[in-house]
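Page 47, continued from p. 46.
Same chain as before, 133 aa.
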Amino acid sequence: MNRFRDWVSRVMYGRYGVDQLGRVLLYVEIALLFVSAFVPNIFLSIVTAMLLVWIFFRMMSRNISRRAEENRRFLSGWNRVKSFFTGGMRAAKDRDHAYFRCPSCGQRVRVPKGKGHIQITCPRCHTQFIKNT
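Result:
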């Protein structure tokens, strides 16, 4: 077992490995394999094979900066989607506060409801904007 681990370490030295995007692609690959087991379709098989090649390409790549940039872009979009669902749920349950986005930096700002027209100062960039609560 130790020799195998050493061999894997030598092979992966200087290579990118697995990141969050790689894990998501792997989960999608497993789901596609599961679906293709019950729905035989040549297009689905080709997509599954191409996705598997892409996963291995990303893992074995030596262009670490390029793969890290791909992962950063993926996480940027993923965090937007995730915050939409988690932040939206929190805002829907909060009856005492209103939530606004700063027009300059996009920071979410929480202010008390029922105060009428108020001037809001963003805690991140200190931009001031007026909203009706």
